[in-house]
Design brief:
Strand content: 15-25%
Bound molecules: alpha-D-glucopyranose
Shape: globular
Strand order of the largest sheet: 1-2-5-10-12-13-14-15
Number of helices: 17
Radius of gyration: 24 Å
Distance between the termini: 27 Å
Structural class: alpha/beta
């Protein structure tokens, strides 16, 4: 077992600040809005808050393109607002995590402007060294890499045969982590932020931080003859040295918490990434978040069955074992809403929302709840591609059309998958713009705010919001905290395919978590557990004499009485 760390028992909440709460009426969420709603977050039972980027940015990728790491973008407020937020969160015993986007900067960062000047003058010096410039090949880019958001991952510098690498948008040039001066700049900045009293960071897109010595073509994976960056540039050898130095020069000096967006980490490397002495405190488990994506990519929607979720979830929990703590997520700002992703429209609502809460919150690891998940926000629907804001959706839609996907299917897929679904404003009440802003929201509010909103759910003790509060309170209760934080995860298999069940086992005590992942009633005949129900999303009991009866999407948490198996 790992030594006990201050963050082991935390429950985290992700805020996408542009869409959380707008206090100054410009239609864009702000830091003051977050401070204003801290009591709401605290009341959920949350004690870690991850705030997506609020640094100064031209917003080409909604703040994931930073032009000044030391500044707050005026759209979000000021540095005083940030300091106030950290302090106010602290007063409520919550810690703040900022997003650390250091695989790339914005092309409007002063470093990159200076780098371009150097390249154009043919005198590549300090700043050109901060980025990745290479000569073009045969009148084209240095390699056939396709960026994550589409198009070549290389952009030519005007008037030269030099190209710079961008894993994401061309407005997001990749930083060169082989450059010592660049590394020193970043360490200095990270420590500067930690000195302000942050709890730590969520690290963005870290899988791409190590680049190869030589850029070679990868195998074409599309009609454009290109190869997606993630096929050729993920977790390359040597990346561990970057992570270790970063850790020892910054995070370890402050005993802070770090959670990494670490795509594609093989199970053999989990110890290295999140073990006792791992590069990070924890990494997100994305194993079951994208189960709906079929083999043919973006427009191929694959049904999410209980069996597939169970397999993925159990595999993750088993691999992580007691190596460390995964961060468990169902939603974030890059995904559509989970109820819409997994279930048909007519089934969406309290039952399936609360069932998902049970499934997620009692796993071993740190739960991350995404804003609005706790009130059951669902996908929105748009009729024209022009109505989307998300750069990724627009690119995927256009590429799908170019590849011959019918327009109707492409539009349906855009609506289903778009990151905009997670970014519609938080639904606070049933007044204009869902109480998010007095101005014109930067992205339209989902029309279902009339019924799905915080105020309505506050007033209803049977709402999803109240259920989340109860579930988190149980997880954190004196009596069960240790079981849910440190208890071993043990899969439980029943013959009903729609049932997902597991036990948490600690010091001779056992808690069973059992959910019906389907919209039909289930009778479990091979389950002779009995004990005390700790949480149930229906009023009805589940236990017959020798069986369990679970209604559609029913979910229960039960402490098993000794000797009942
Ligand atoms: C991460 C972020 C995503 C962003 C990308 C580039 O995947 O979660 O929102 O677009 O990195 O920074």
């Amino acid at each position: 077992m790992q030594d006990v760390k201050w963050w082991h028992d935390k429950v985290a909440y992700q805020i996408y600040p542009a869409s959380f709460r707008d206090v100054n009426g410009d239609g864009f969420g702000d830091l003051k809005g977050i401070t204003e709603r801290l009591d709401y977050i605290r009341e959920l039972g949350v004690d870690l808050i991850w705030v997506s980027p609020v640094y100064r940015s031209p917003m080409a990728d909604k703040g994931y393109d930073i032009s000044d790491y030391y500044g707050i973008d005026p759209r979000f407020g000021s540095m005083e607002d940030m300091e106030e937020l950290i302090e106010e969160a602290g007063k409520r015993e919550m810690k703040l995590l900022m997003d650390l986007v250091i695989n790339h900067s914005s092309d409007e960062h002063e470093w990159f402007r200076k780098a371009l000047l150097e390249v154009k003058q043919g005198k590549e010096g300090r700043y050109a060294g901060y980025y990745i410039f290479r000569d073009g090949r045969d009148g084209g880019p240095p390699s056939n890499w396709r960026s994550i958001f589409g198009g070549s991952a290389w952009e030519r510098v005007d008037g030269t045969n030099r190209y710079y690498l961008h894993t994401f948008l061309k407005k997001q040039p990749d930083l060169n982590w082989d450059d010592e001066a660049l590394r020193e700049e970043i360490y200095c900045m990270v420590n500067w932020w930690l000195d302000k009293g942050l709890g730590g960071f969520r690290l963005d897109a870290i899988a791409y931080m190590k680049k190869p010595e030589v850029f070679m073509d990868g195998p074409a994976d599309g009609d454009d003859g290109m190869c997606n960056v993630y096929q050729v540039c993920q977790n390359l050898p040597g990346i561990e040295n970057i992570f270790e130095e970063l850790k020892w020069r910054t995070f370890r000096l402050h005993d802070c918490f770090t959670v990494a967006e670490a795509n594609g980490v093989a199970s053999e490397r989990l110890t290295e990434f999140m073990g006792e002495d791992g590069h990070f405190s924890t990494i997100f488990d994305f194993n079951y978040i994208e189960l709906d994506i079929g083999e043919n990519g973006w427009h191929d929607k694959k049904p999410v069955t209980a069996a597939r979720v169970r397999r993925a979830l159990f595999a993750s929990q088993k691999e992580a074992g007691e190596i460390g703590f995964l961060s468990n997520v169902l939603e974030n700002h890059d995904q559509n809403r989970v109820q819409s992703r997994f279930f048909p429209r007519e089934d969406q609502g309290f039952e399936c929302g609360s069932m998902l809460a049970v499934l997620q919150l009692f796993l071993r690891g740190i739960p991350f709840i995404y804003q609005g998940q706790e009130i059951g926000m669902t996908n929105d629907c748009r009729s024209r591609i022009e109505e989307f804001d998300d750069v990724a959706t627009i690119d995927q839609y256009q590429r799908a059309l170019a590849a011959g996907v019918p327009q109707k299917l492409a539009m349906e897929t855009a609506n289903f998958r778009s990151r905009d679904n997670a970014r519609t404003p938080m639904q606070w009440d049933d007044t204009a713009n869902a109480g998010f802003t007095d101005g014109m929201p930067w992205l339209p509010v989902n029309p279902n705010y009339i019924t799905v909103n915080v105020k309505t759910e506050e007033a209803d003790a049977g709402s999803l919001l109240h259920f989340y509060r109860r579930a988190i309170a149980l997880r954190k209760s004196e009596q069960y905290r240790e079981i849910f934080v440190y208890g071993a995860f043990e899969p439980v298999m029943f013959s009903n395919d729609n049932i997902i069940a597991y036990k948490r086992v600690w010091n001779g005590r056992e808690v069973l978590v059992c959910v019906n992942f389907g919209g039909k009633r289930e009778t479990i005949q091979d389950g002779a557990f009995s004990g005390t129900i700790l949480l149930n999303n229906y009023d009805e009991a589940v236990q017959g004499q020798k069986e369990f009866l679970l209604k559609p999407y029913q979910a229960v948490v039960m402490e098993i009485s000794e000797g009942t198996e």
